[in-house]
Amino acid sequence: MRETYHGQLDAIVVSLVGLTETVADAVNRATRSLLNADLPLAEQVISDDRIIDAAHDDIEQRAFALLARQSPVAGELRTIVAALRMTNALGRMGDLAAHIAKVARLRYPDTAVPDALRENFRAMATLSESMVRTAATTLRDRNVENAAQLAEDDEEMDELRASQFRVLLSDDWNEGVEKAVDAALLGRYYERIADHAVNIGSRVIYLTTGSAPEGDMWPKA
Amino acid sequence: MRETYHGQLDAIVVSLVGLTETVADAVNRATRSLLNADLPLAEQVISDDRIIDAAHDDIEQRAFALLARQSPVAGELRTIVAALRMTNALGRMGDLAAHIAKVARLRYPDTAVPDALRENFRAMATLSESMVRTAATTLRDRNVENAAQLAEDDEEMDELRASQFRVLLSDDWNEGVEKAVDAALLGRYYERIADHAVNIGSRVIYLTTGSAPEGDMWPKA
Question: What domains can you pick out in chain B, each with its CATH number?
Answer without folding.
Answer: 2-215 (1.20.58.220)
